[in-house]
Known about the structure:
There is one protein chain. By secondary structure, this protein is mostly helical. It has 2 domains: 14-47; 51-285, MetI-like fold. The protein has 13 helices and no strands. It has helices spanning 17-46, 51-58, 61-94, 100-112, 115-126, 131-138, 147-173, 176-183, 188-217, 220-226, 236-245, 249-276, 278-281. Helix 5 (115-126) runs parallel beside helix 10 (220-226) and helix 11 (236-245) runs antiparallel to helix 12.
Amino acid sequence: MSDIALTSPVPVTTEPVLIRSLLIGLSLAFVALFLFAPLVTVFVEALRQGWVAALDALRLPDAQAAIRMTLTIAAIAVPINAVFGIAAAWAITKFDFPGKAFLITLIDLPFSVSPVVAGLMLVLLFGANSTLGGWLIANDMPIVFAFPGILLATLFVTFPFVARELIPVMIEQGRAEEEAALTLGASGWRTFFTVTLPNIRWALLYGVLLCNARAMGEFGAVAVVSGKIRGETATMPTMVEMFYNEYLSVAAFTLAAVLAMLALLTLLLKSLLEWRHADLLAATRRH
Length: 287
């Protein structure tokens, strides 16, 4: 017979069953009322007049132009922020230098600044009334109310996601493996691709997913710098607002449903990553 005595599980909390049930019920009610119900409403309204009307709404030239603009911006902004996010995380975790704490603060800046303020900063810097903006416009290189302005706004608001997912993972892994590879004669690039990148690949993918979701769904900063010009600078979120203000409900909710489906796909992929690679992603929860 085993010498180890079997004991009953220790309860996590000591609150009465009524209190626990009440807290669980309130949490479920909050999720249902403020998260699930609005999401369902979007899909219901999109299909209120049937699938044919919804598909016709997606065939509208303005809707298709907005979809192309959103996907193009995301396709450019996400890889750029992935590269600079890796560079920032590498610099912060592998080197000691003056201003390191300031760099970490700068990475968090887009989290604390309102997207509308971010867009306004770009307008003030690159708008027609600024010296730089006036020179760019005079040389046929407009930033504000053009594609470059939308890209810059998206880059600003999505920059922290990749870096903030990588920094805790790279801190936990330390420098020993990279130093060993360098000692054995590996170059810096070979060390990165054969040692560092395999260790951070799942956290990197996780950060890229979050960055992509934010890039496609960003409204505030993009609305300020884009001018919301139909067929030229309108993105999916801004086009949803424009359709809704024009009482084109089916078009507005259908485009919103497409955005919601993209968000749900991102959530599904994120959950799959967390389930299959929980140990590797655990460090990302510490920031």
